[in-house]
Amino acid sequence: MNFLMRMLPLILLFSACSLPVHTGGPSSLNQSGPSHLMQIHIESWGTPRFTGLLGLQFQDTGLTYMLLDATGITLLESQVTQNGDSTVIRAAGKLGDTGLPDFLAASLWKIYLIEPASAPCAGNLFLRFCMEKMENTRVRKYAATGPFTLWEAEFDSACPAKWPAVSFSEPWFGVSLTLTDLNRHQ
């Protein structure tokens, strides 16, 4: 009990910190306009959990996504605002009661809707949020605390007319997702 009382101020300090983000700006991946249909693949600790389709539609206020199974049946539709709030519009069966809608909303928010408040990195006492160019035209967007990466997204920014493949992971939870444009090789 005494240990918990000493750790409580530190826990409160860590939980009060948030990422220094800029929303609503021109992201290298955020493209308003027509809908985009992508293949989505979700893994947990290296085990495939879901493969299907993801439809994305960007608006000024954020994005709407539709998760479809491999045959095109809509399983989930949700909206994500610029500040990261999400609303499930419809979900098949009990899918809305699982953690999947929140995971997808948070992942898509991190991938498409936010950028560091200052380039290439912004940070506060404990958190660092960066969007850095890597070799060739690869871009890495990530959040870290000290040497530990909380989440990261990587994509190729070479051809803005086509949607790049995006890999996103949260290493501490063993979760990763990959998004690939269905028209990428056409």
Word description of this protein:
Helices cover 16% and strands 47% of the residues. It contains two helices and 13 strands; from the N terminus they run H-E-E-E-E-E-E-H-E-E-E-E-E-E-E. The protein has helices at 2-16, 100-113, and strands at 21-23, 36-44, 47-59, 62-68, 74-81, 86-91, 114-116, 121-123, 128-133, 138-145, 148-156, 166-170, 175-181. A hairpin with a 2-residue loop joins strand 10 (138-145) and strand 11 (148-156). Mean pLDDT is 81; it is low at 7-17 and 25-30.
Features:
186 residues, alpha+beta, 11-stranded antiparallel beta sheet, two-stranded antiparallel ribbon, 13 strands, 47% strand, globular
The poorly predicted ranges are 7-17, 25-30
Mass-distribution shape: globular
Number of helices: 2
Rg computed from alpha carbons, rounded to a whole number of angstroms: 17 Å
The H-and-E topology, N to C, reads as HEEEEEEHEEEEEEE
Structural class: alpha+beta
Tally of DSSP β-strands? 13
What's the mean pLDDT score? 81
Q: Which percent range fits the helix content?
A: 10-25%
* First-residue to last-residue Cα separation: 62 Å
What does the main sheet amount to?
11 strands, antiparallel
Biggest sheet strand line-up: 6-5-4-3-2-13-12-11-10-9-8
Percent strand: over 45%
